[in-house]
Design a protein that fits this description.
Shape: flat
Number of strands: 5
Strand order of the largest sheet: 1-2-3-5-4
Strand content: 5-15%
Oligomer: single chain
Order of helices and strands: HHHHHHHHHHHHHHHHHHHHEHHEEHEE
Structural class: alpha+beta
Low-confidence stretches: 1-21
Distance between the termini: 47 Å
Length: 606
């Protein structure tokens, strides 16, 4: 302890005397410029900027704290966590109270708050904050801010059935301002009429915009794009292709890669609508390359699904499976990136708290710098000891909090997974399954001509039913015992492994909560899958018994066994799912394995 206190004192004194590597002005200017380089910065970039702010700043500079809170608000907004987003945007607003020359910052924060309320469906509050932002923008007379806010307001007015108010704003923008302002407003108007089904009106507005844009051809890309969409609606494929290619040419001259990628995907859509599947496939692949250049994983998933749809249409089943696997791989990468960003945000908050404690400690030390050396040393030592114990207590609380959050997160993930499984299973059964059955009925009218189609439909219906059953087995509705016995019987049907099932009388009468029974079923299912895949077993036995207040499920195989230490280091998710589900129902899992086989015991407290 003595050495720790001395070390703390030395580190403390060094921290007090270390000069800042760069001024707050330089840091804020650099990081703000990076954040605003693109209209929408990626999550990874935003987290990186937050980390730099947190690592370099030990000050009370309101602008830096505003930027930190504003970035956090944007990240949580993208994750649809509107409460946390609102909290951080409100915190950002508070940082700017009585701070001069920060009106543009307030505009951005009010827009963020407005968007939060819009997605929460509180349109009245969203309009209030959009008007606050507009008032500041009009005082500053910054045209680009006013136009952006008016567009946002127009969308809110449309959501609240105030179409006339929305059209007033858009028509106002179309009549005044610079050519670029008018073009953007007219593009929004054309979009509105197109969405309402007034295709000719939308085309008329686009034609007027083209006349204005003759002197500003590089601004005409969205107009040409909108005209292409209108001609798609009118089934005029040649005209749609003509204007879409013009839009792409302008975007390539401007190096707007995101627009180029979107236009390429739309071009592939048009080729597909026109029946040119070969060109459609080649163009979709080009769109994949362009989306990968800008790192847009969500759009990449969408293109892979379009390629899958096209492959299914052409009966290229192997390609369809490959495209589907590629889409799923990217979706997993997106999920992993979201989890990593959430962990990074937690770490940033934790480090921020530590730095706040350091700032407080420095202030206390500086307040007493005129005291005698002996008194100063005594105070510093006392503060160090208290800080040490406070830090120990604080970190313990943080660890406990994180563990609790992880457990809650695991519970939410399992619950969400189960809910999604149920939804997908229902969609497969009630939606796709029924449609396939209808198709089979139509094809059965002339079985002699449609033999191949009927066989394919029968196989597809069986596969849909199989997938639906795996997602949410209906057998669980008949009770846990019946469902587990069914698992064993299915193994015996394959005649590769013999599975025996025994249960005592007390367990047969036992009835657990449906969520608990489903979790037990999934655990046993995962264990059996592992044994069938890896154990090389010939025999598997499942024994269920009840003793006092404990339900025990013992699963034994005669396979080759495995190293049980690898359970916690495995890169797979099978054992993670088993352990997580067991924790949720407050059960324990004991595993013993050797070259003679594996013994797994699941104990559930009743």
């Amino acid at each position: 302890m003595k050495n720790s206190i001395v070390l703390l004192f030395v580190v403390f004194c060094c921290a007090c005397n270390t000069p800042q590597q760069q001024t707050n002005d330089q840091l804020f200017a650099n990081l703000r410029a990076r954040f605003e380089k693109n209209e929408v910065v990626s999550d990874d970039s935003a987290v990186s900027i937050l980390s730099e702010l947190n690592a370099n700043v030990l000050s009370k500079d309101a602008r830096i704290h505003w930027l930190t809170a504003h970035i956090k608000g944007g990240l949580f907004l993208r994750q649809s966590n509107y409460e946390k987003a609102l909290y951080n945007y409100n915190l950002a607003e508070k940082q700017l109270i009585n701070v001069p020359n920060t009106d543009t910052f307030l505009i951005k924060t009010y827009n963020g708050i407005s968007n939060c309320y819009k997605w929460k469906a509180n349109h009245t509050a969203a309009i209030v904050f959009a008007l606050k932002a507009k008032k500041i923008a009009e005082q500053l007379a910054v045209e680009k801010f006013i136009l952006g806010i008016n567009t946002n307001l127009a969308q809110l007015y449309l959501l609240t059935n105030k179409d006339s108010d929305a059209l007033v704003l858009l028509n106002e923008g179309a009549k005044r301002g610079t050519a670029s302002v008018r073009l953007i407003a007219m593009h929004s108007l054309a979009n509105y009429y197109g969405e309402q089904g007034y295709i000719d009106s939308a085309l008329s507005i686009d034609n007027k915009a083209m006349q204005i844009g003759e002197e500003h051809k590089l601004l005409l890309s969205p107009i040409y794009n909108n005209k292409a969409l209108c001609f798609v609606e009118k089934k005029n494929i040649d005209s749609a292709l003509f204007y879409l290619k013009k839009s792409y040419t302008i975007d390539s001259l401007n190096k707007h890669r995101k627009n180029m990628a979107a236009n390429t995907e739309l071009l592939a859509n048009i080729y597909e609508l026109g029946g040119n599947d070969i060109k459609a496939e080649l163009t979709y692949k080009k769109a994949l390359k362009e989306f990968s250049l800008i790192g847009s994983k969500k759009n990449t998933v969408g293109v892979f699904m379009m390629l899958k749809k096209l492959a299914v249409k052409r009966h290229y089943w192997q390609q369809a499976y490959a495209y589907n696997d590629s889409a799923n791989t990217i979706l997993k990468q997106i999920d992993n990136a979201n989890i990593a960003n959430n962990i990074a945000l937690l770490n940033i908050d934790y480090e921020t708290e530590k730095k706040n404690a350091t700032i407080t400690q420095q202030a206390e030390t500086l307040a007493n710098k005129n005291n005698t050396i002996v008194l100063l040393l005594a105070i510093v030592l006392l503060v160090s000891v208290l800080a040490w114990y406070a830090y120990k207590n604080y970190t313990t609380k943080i660890i406990l909090k994180l563990q609790h959050q992880q457990q809650n997160a695991a519970l939410q993930i399992i619950a969400a997974e189960q809910k999604e499984r149920m939804r997908i299973a229902q969609e497969l059964h009630d939606g796709i399954g029924q449609k396939l059955t209808v198709l089979k009925m139509y094809a059965s009218v002339d079985e002699t001509k449609n033999t191949l189609q009927l066989n394919l439909l029968n196989d597809t219906i069986s596969e849909v039913r199989s997938i639906s059953h795996k997602m949410m087995p209906e057998i669980i509705n008949l009770g846990l015992v019946t469902a587990l016995r069914d698992l064993c019987e299915k193994i015996n049907v394959a005649k590769l492994v013999t599975c025996s099932f025994t249960i005592d009388e007390a367990s047969q009468k036992l009835k657990l909560a449906s969520d608990t029974e489903l979790s037990i079923y999934r655990i046993v299912q995962e264990v059996l899958n592992n044994m069938l895949k890896h154990a090389q077993a010939k025999k598997i036995s499942i024994k269920i018994s009840t003793q006092v207040s404990t339900l025990s499920i013992v699963i034994i195989d005669d396979g080759i066994g495995f190293n049980t230490k690898a359970i916690h280091t495995s890169s797979g998710i099978g054992w993670d799912n088993i352990i997580t589900r067991a924790k949720i129902i407050k059960a324990t899992v004991d595993v013993a394995s050797s070259a003679k086989g594996t013994n797994i015991i699941l104990n559930i407290n009743l």
